[in-house]
Amino acid sequence: MEKEQEKKMRELSVAGCEVIGEGAVGKVYRLDDETIIKVFAPGVPLEVVQEEKRIAKNAFVAGVPTAISFDVVKVGESYGAVYEMLRAKTLSAFIRENPDRAAEMGKRMGRLLKELHKIEVDTNKFVDVRALFKERVRRMEKFLTKEETDKLTAVYDCLDERNTVMHGDFHPKNVMYSEKNDELLFIDLADMGYGHPLLDLGATCLVMEVFGRATPERSPHFIGLEYKTSLEIWGNILSEYFDAADIKEAKILADIYGQAKFALFPAIIPNMPQNDVMGFVMGARARGFLNKDLDITPALKTSLKF
Ligand SMILES: Nc1ncnc2c1ncn2[C@@H]1O[C@H](COP(=O)(O)OP(=O)(O)OP(=O)(O)O)[C@@H](O)[C@H]1O
Ligand SMILES: [Mg+2]
Predict the structure, then answer these.
(1) Residue 260 and residue 199: Cα distance in Å, rounded?
(2) pLDDT at 100
(3) What is d(CA 203, CA 297) in angstroms, rounded to the nearest whole number?
(4) For residue 93, which atom of ligand 1 is closest to its CA?
(5) In angstroms, what CA-CA distances link 158 with 74, 191, 292?
(6) pLDDT of residue 5
């Protein structure tokens, strides 16, 4: 099947193309004035690349402000997805150059996310993100106690059903800012699906606040900003997204979903050695979702409206 698809696939070379971005799964090159290509690391299966492109296309069609996606191509031993080149810079880069605008941009991110969470989608065209997390719980089950599995399951089961879109990895390096149009755009839609807004807010909290608690010096690597700036922006996202009276509770809830996502991290790493998974689980017991002191009652009892 893969071979059949490859025959029809356009081949491209990125020799001499400028690298404009580098991330966890590969490199982004400028192809010409109109297009860029995201080349995935060798070994990333064709289906993964096609799936990211499929999500990006469906998102664009559903009205999500993002780049137009073109085709999937072969680049040497790797696959790549071709996208419209956004005439914009990452919001991280913009804030590094304009630190006095961090708070304003945090608020705009909050509004952008809230608008995104209003977009209803055809659930046949997007992934059910809660189901994905519950599948991760199942994969982790053999490393966890029954209480731990129940605690993880409970935070996902208590969310109401939604058919609205969520980004899945929303932070200032996955948002681009066009100064010309004064517009924010989403990129990096690999984790986009439909589901409760708290799943999205949790993912953002994880990257912008939780990671930095233990290792603040790593914040520039994750989101391209100092931890202090990250916290300031996250605070502004929350203050724009929620009514003043709800912010404190919202922050606690986002933290719970962020910690839960982190505890399930080994489930997304292909063939992670069992000892490494156990080491990770011990860490999450020492300080994290699996710690006895991490109380999930706020999630189970919340009356916050989304
Ligand atoms: N459509 C685009 N137009 C212009 N620049 C882009 C575009 N898409 C991505 N970039 C640049 O490439 C960088 C990496 O892109 P992206 O976030 O999609 O990949 P990634 O972080 O490697 O992905 P992943 O999180 O899946 O590993 C961005 O931060 C941005 O600078
Ligand atoms: Mg990215």
Answers:
(1) 10
(2) 97
(3) 19
(4) 31
(5) 43, 21, 20
(6) 66
User: Is the beta carbon of 174 within 6 A of some atom in ligand 1?
Assistant: yes
64: left (phi over 0), alpha (psi -120 to 50) or beta: beta
Residue 128, beta-bridge partner list:
194
| CB of 21 shorter than 6 A to ligand 1 | yes
Q: Whose CA is nearest to atom 8 of ligand 1?
A: 187
Calculate the dihedral angle through the C-alpha atoms of 163, 182, 236, 290, rounding to the nearest 10 degrees: 50
User: What is the spatial distance between Cα 278 and Cα 93, in angstroms, rounded to a whole number?
Assistant: 37
Predicted local distance difference test score (pLDDT) of residue 129: 98
Q: Is the CB of 67 under 6 A from ligand 1?
A: yes
pLDDT tens-digit profile of 270-288?
A: 899 999 999 999 999 999 9
Burial zone of 217 (CB within 10 Å; 0-12 exposed, 13-18 middle, 19+ buried): exposed
Per the CB < 8 A criterion, the answer to whether 82 and 183 are in contact is no
The CATH class, in words, for 2-84 is: alpha beta
Can you tell me the mean pLDDT for 221-233? 96
Distance CA(166)–CA(174), nearest Å, equals 13
Tell whether ligand 1 has an atom less than 6 A from the beta carbon of residue 219. Answer: no
pLDDT number for residue 8 = 76
Residue 175 CA to ligand 2 center (angstroms) comes to 9
89-301 in CATH: which number? 3.90.1200
CB 133 within 8 A of CB 175: no
Q: Which residue, 106, 109, 144, 127, is CA-closest to 235?
A: 106
User: Taking the model in full, what pTM does it have?
Assistant: 0.94
Domain-wise residue ranges, the chain = 2-84, 89-301
